[in-house]
Amino acid sequence: MAQPTQWQFTAQLPRDFQTKTLRQLLMTNWYLPKHLVFSLKHGKRVLVNNQYLPVNFDVHPGDRINLTFLATDFEHPYSNVIPDSAATVKVLYEDTNLLVVNKTQGSKTHPNQPGEVGTTLNHVAAYLAPKNQQPYVINRLDQETSGALLIAKNPAVVPVLVRLVKKKLVRRTYLTWVHGRLNSSQGLIAMPIGRNLADKRKRQLNGDHPQMAITRYKVISRKPDATLVAVQLQTGRTHQIRVHFAGLGHPIVGDPLYANDPRQQRLLLHSWQLRLPLPFSFNHIMLTASVPEPFRQFEQQPFK
């Protein structure tokens, strides 16, 4: 099947839209990077009410905007992920631009080697192949972390979603069981995280080349020996939630790197809720990913 060579988007500005220049709409409201706005302008591929409009002209409520992107607008227009079985793909949300799936625990987010298969992105590639679409990874979850994973379906929305993540307009809430009882009902952890020179798989508080990391949490429920917390990240460091709670003396249940649990205990960290603005629109979505079975099993376990 031939790969697409262009991608088109159409949107009508809402009635409460505040008049501004087309450039402001594209860059401020829709978060398009400057080089793509230049390409649209140079190729006269941005239309307002079916007419080309210079980007310094105003757009108004009710105007209809058409954008056409070409493969040549992008350094990597095709993801070229090898399709694998789509059997494990659990779709939480899908439109023409993006897909949110409930990632299976134990599945890597994306391949790291040429020809690699078996990852979530390979499974999504198989799901999208009949539609002549490809998956583009926006962010990743650790292999043992389950839950909502955001994936782009065309190259035009990749830079938009990346900017939304960078500006913290994509809000992700994690759910996790940690060992012990947290005394406060909510809190903020602000501690730098760096590399662990003794174990390259791990990170540690104030490790090598530390970067400030900020984690907010709220207690959902308690057991005598564990606490269920909802967590939001203000920064995105590797293993941030795992390292921060281990640093407090409350490692995540089942963490193979930072807790001393039996190997059969799965990591209880789940990307639970996801809220984001939809590209090329003025709408938001809020999604909840059902928790995997190990969460329910742990909640029902008697106190040890």
From TrEMBL:
InterPro entries: PsdUridine_synth_cat_dom_sf, PsdUridine_synth_RluA-like_CS, PsdUridine_synth_RluC/D, PsdUridine_synth_RsuA/RluA, RluA_PseudoU_synthase. The active site is at D142. Its EC number is 5.4.99.-. It catalyses: a uridine in RNA = a pseudouridine in RNA. NCBIfam families: rluA_subfam. GO terms for biological process: enzyme-directed rRNA pseudouridine synthesis. Residues 97-246 form the Pseudouridine synthase RsuA/RluA-like domain. Responsible for synthesis of pseudouridine from uracil. One of its GO terms (molecular function) is pseudouridine synthase activity. It comes from the Bacteria. Keywords: Isomerase. Belongs to the pseudouridine synthase RluA family. It is an enzyme of class 5 (isomerase). The keyword Isomerase applies. Pfam families: PseudoU_synth_2. Signal peptide: none annotated. This is Pseudouridine synthase.
